[in-house]
Amino acid sequence: MNKTLTSLAVAASLLGAPAVAADKLLLKTPIAFSTALPGLGSPIPRVAEQLDLMSGGTLQMKVYEPGKLVPPFEILDAVSSGKINSGYTTAGYWAGNIPAAPLFSAVPFGPEAGEYMAWLYYGNGMTLYQEMYDQAGFNVHVLPCAIIAPETSGWFAKEINSPEDLKGLKMRFFGLGGKVMQKLGVATSLLPGGEIFPALEKGAIDATEFSMPAIDARLGFHKLVKYNYFPGWHQQATVFELLINKDVWNETSEQHQAIIENACKGSMTDSFAEGEAIQHEVLIDNVENNGVIIKQWSPEMLDTFRTTWDEVAAEEAAADPFFAKVLADMTEFREGYKTWKENAFLPRK
């Protein structure tokens, strides 16, 4: 066989062969949110499916529902130590150990989904995101793997017409927004999704925020508290992360790494689209069938939240140099983006 025919034969065999890596990898992935929660937990089984399909079966992910393998708030430590090789969660859960972590999850009056992704992928966001875990001593590789649009601002048993109405409330609240509420006299606690309804039912908390309407509906908050407030000033977008043990990541083939990275990027699009598609039906159902009263925060309340957030941001930056570094970078990016946003997008009425 001449060289040309030999080359053609080799090329044909390569084209006919499945494009898969030789080594096999199974990611055992405990998650922080039930897969029954649309847009929040539902993205990760779809990621698992795509990993299998794109790798021809050499890269697989086994998803474990919250608490089945590792409790939600222990996922970071477990992945870092190698107890498990991966986990799906959100960085805001690590605020107690890493003050800057919530900046990679949700920021009060912060970027919406498109702007957040722009900063992560084409600004300095991803570099800082990985640097945060490295600097804090966690042996993990991080990938954003889902994102959702605004959450509701909370569920209350009574109307909130002034800052005075917040004082003394016991409320489940997430991330940096929780620090804002604390300054306004609210006693906050961070409960996993499955613990919120029982806490409301028993009176351990008076009010709660958790996520988007379609997700909150699955948890039944409307059965106990009827005032649902908007806009979600504390979480205009929320990022969810896939954590992989760094030793495992470094030993993974470049092909498998690329498949994981692109499956997660695909999930960012898919999760955002899913979340945007399913909220209006729930809002209508809540009002027409569940007795929910949808409320908009007054300009006075939004100004109060924003002013208080500015105070919290300044305090957090003063207390932690890396928080200050990330916030400064995000703020600089947003100042530039603002020029585009104000000129290109229709004004909101």
In short:
This protein has helices at 3-16, 43-55, 75-81, 113-122, 125-135, 175-183, 193-202, 213-219, 246-251, 254-277, 279-289, 299-319, 321-344, and strands at 25-30, 59-64, 86-89, 140-148, 154-156, 170-172, 187-189, 207-208, 227-230, 238-245, 293-296. With 349 residues, the protein is of the alpha/beta class. The radius of gyration is 22 Å and the shape is globular.
Descriptive notes:
With 349 residues, the protein is of the alpha/beta class. Helices cover 48% and strands 15% of the residues. The chain is built from 13 helices and 11 strands. The chain has helices at 3-16, 43-55, 75-81, 113-122, 125-135, 175-183, 193-202, 213-219, 246-251, 254-277, 279-289, 299-319, 321-344, and strands at 25-30, 59-64, 86-89, 140-148, 154-156, 170-172, 187-189, 207-208, 227-230, 238-245, 293-296. The strands form 4 sheets. A 3-stranded antiparallel sheet has the order 3-10-4, sandwiched between helices. Helix 2 (43-55) packs antiparallel against helix 10 (254-277), helix 4 crosses helix 5 (125-135) and helix 6 (175-183) crosses helix 12 (299-319). The longest helix has 24 residues, at 254-277. The protein is globular, with a radius of gyration of 22 Å.
Q: Write out the strand line-up for the largest beta sheet, numbering strands in chain order.
A: 3-10-4
Query: Roughly how much helix do the residues carry, as a percent range?
Result: 40-55%
Sheet with the most strands, sense and barrel status: 3 strands, antiparallel
Beta strand count: 11
First-residue to last-residue Cα separation: 73 Å
* Sequence stretches where pLDDT stays below 50 over 5 or more residues: 1-21
The number of helical runs is: 13
Gross morphology is globular
* Average predicted confidence as pLDDT: 93
Determine Rg (CA atoms, Å).
22 Å
Could you give the order of the helices and strands? HEHEHEHHEEEHEHEHEEHHHEHH
Strand content: 5-15%
Class derived from helix and strand content: alpha/beta
